[in-house]
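Troubleshooting log. The previous structure file for this entry was overwritten by mistake, so regenerating from the original sequence record. Sequence copied from the archived sheet and checked twice against the printout by T.R.
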Amino acid sequence: MNIFLSYASDQRALADDLCHRLQAAGHEVFFDREDLPAGQAFDDRIREAIEACDLFIFLVSPAAVAPGRYTRTELKIAARRWPSPAGHVLPVLAEPTPLADVPAYLRALNLLQPEGNLVAEVLLEVRNLAHHAAS
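Regenerated output below.
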């Protein structure tokens, strides 16, 4: 599965771990640290990556949903690609965030609220989504 991982910089360590675990499970993951070489126009590269992905994972945190953040731009691109996000967008509660601050596009879905290890639970959900997409 081709996955785009959207997160705020304060969640970088978590996103890095998630990216590597998804890659180890056989998924292609667009991750800004690895996929945005210095000196390249990142806006076009990010838009192209979102338009080409099968699944858009959004790590929800107060910083990620704050107005003016680039994560909100990434979310807008995903919303244009999939007006109905079900099966294409996976919002993951990475840090306690008031529900009222979460964009309506994400609130239209059940937010994955990990009870145990966040990365392990995201991997389980991605496996489940990939299975449903294949059937």
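The longest strand covers residues 55-60. Archived copy saved in two places this time.
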